[in-house]
């Protein structure tokens, strides 16, 4: 039975459709694995009581076995509404927020035959509580641990979902990404992470940071599975995506902050680039920098967007000022790392001149970046830049290789055209190391 934990989602789905494996059997196996191992990783915050019931219904179904996500068990980040489960964003201030209905992306998953196992822990308020907040920590959930090395960085705010996939708790998981919360988590945990183009998925009933930047995203162990889940979360699935032949690929390499990349990591990039060049891939160097205006948008939109979400939620606290007061009234349990970002956001507004300047800069940069990227299938990020998130481009992370100690290393790509990016990444993935499970 162990083989199902590492089976590609597309293959596992076929086995259940053909009744070679029961949906209930698969669901119980993943739930048992979570119970056995998650005390070491703290990735899962809550289990859905109806998971087995969902599975039995699918096993007995005579229709709908061709559903896109038939029988596939999934875990969901704790800032996305799942009916009957809590949506807390990792904060005790929202511990009473029991979702009454599914977010639109979750409703689509269920419609396509997916099974929601439960929720995952995350960095508190999607890493928007304090600049001193460690990745993977929340006042409600504690620390999430990397499955490859408990002392290693587990990644940004979607850390529980990424760890759950790498540890074999589910074949795919749902996260959110405002700036690297999916793609950076994926690189740290040896899995694939996909952040779709901004606004291509519904943001309904997802606890936000900034609507201009936020997107739901997905984790899996290969890109084909991530695309499968993307289609299952969308209102309208995309047409099939196929790899681009290597000799037809044109790749840009963003050199911004190149000096911040370690020589060891650069050597890993060069090994990949050389293998691709031998097969005819064409490379060009470009420079697309980091934008400080992104944080201004986050600070100015946060209160407005959070309070819009809370207005329709069951949480008692409805205003950012009330949440801050809750933290200040419980300093020992709630303010271990401070709340400086929440406090700063409480003083900002979309009416601020700072926000108007940031949005104007975003619009200007969107035109420039799209123009620079239009001839490329994909752009590879080397040194740190947030430009893809700032202007709303799709981005993804592939598992590149393992380092000398067996820790996975990743590579991040983005592009102006989502279909071209996915097609190019399917080709690049064949040059990267396959997923290797951690030793639990």
TrEMBL record:
InterPro entries: Amidase_dom (IPR023631), AS_sf (IPR036928). SUPFAM superfamilies: Amidase signature (AS) enzymes. Coiled coil: none annotated. Residues 25-381 form the Amidase domain. This is Amidase. It comes from Candidatus Ornithocaccomicrobium faecavium.
């Amino acid at each position: 039975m162990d083989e199902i934990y590492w089976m590609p989602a597309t293959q596992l789905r076929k086995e259940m459709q053909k009744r070679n494996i029961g949906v209930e059997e698969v669901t119980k196996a993943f739930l048992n694995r979570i119970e056995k191992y998650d005390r070491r990783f703290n990735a899962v915050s809550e289990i859905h009581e109806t998971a087995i019931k969902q599975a039995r219904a699918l096993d007995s179904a005579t229709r709908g076995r061709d559903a896109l996500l038939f029988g596939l068990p999934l875990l969901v980040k704790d800032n996305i509404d799942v009916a009957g489960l809590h949506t807390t964003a990792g904060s005790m201030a929202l511990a009473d927020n029991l979702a009454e209905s599914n977010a639109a992306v979750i409703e689509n998953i269920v419609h396509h035959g997916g099974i929601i196992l439960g929720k995952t822990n995350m960095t508190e308020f999607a890493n928007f509580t304090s600049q001193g907040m460690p990745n993977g920590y929340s006042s409600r959930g504690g620390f999430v641990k990397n499955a490859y090395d408990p002392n290693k960085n587990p990644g940004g705010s979607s850390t529980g979902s990424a760890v759950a996939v790498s540890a074999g708790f589910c074949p795919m998981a749902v996260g959110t990404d405002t700036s690297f919360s999916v793609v950076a988590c994926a690189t740290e945990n040896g899995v694939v992470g996909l952040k779709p183009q901004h606004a291509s998925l519904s943001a309904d009933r997802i606890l936000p940071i900034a609507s201009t930047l936020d997107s739901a995203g997905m984790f899996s162990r290969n890109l084909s599975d991530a695309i499968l889940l993307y289609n299952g979360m969308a209102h309208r699935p995309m047409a099939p995506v196929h790899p681009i032949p290597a000799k037809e690929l044109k790749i840009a390499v963003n050199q911004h902050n190149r000096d911040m990349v370690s020589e060891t990591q650069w050597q890993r990039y060069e090994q990949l680039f050389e293998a691709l060049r031998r097969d005819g891939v064409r490379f060009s160097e470009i420079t697309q920098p980091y934008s400080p205006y992104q944080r201004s948008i986050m600070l100015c939109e946060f209160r407005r967007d959070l309070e819009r979400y809370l207005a329709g939620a069951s949480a008692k606290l409805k205003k950012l000022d009330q949440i801050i007061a809750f933290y200040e009234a419980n300093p020992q349990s709630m303010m271990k790392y401070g709340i400086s970002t929440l406090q700063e956001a409480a003083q900002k507004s979309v009416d601020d001149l700072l926000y108007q300047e940031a949005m104007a800069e975003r619009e200007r940069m969107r035109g420039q970046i799209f123009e620079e990227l239009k001839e490329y299938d994909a752009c590879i990020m080397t040194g740190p830049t947030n430009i893809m998130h700032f202007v709303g481009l799709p981005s993804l992370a592939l598992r590149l290789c393992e380092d000398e100690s067996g820790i996975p290393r990743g590579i991040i790509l983005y592009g102006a055209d989502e279909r071209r990016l996915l097609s190019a990444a399917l080709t690049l993935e064949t040059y990267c190391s396959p997923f290797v499970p951690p030793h639990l």
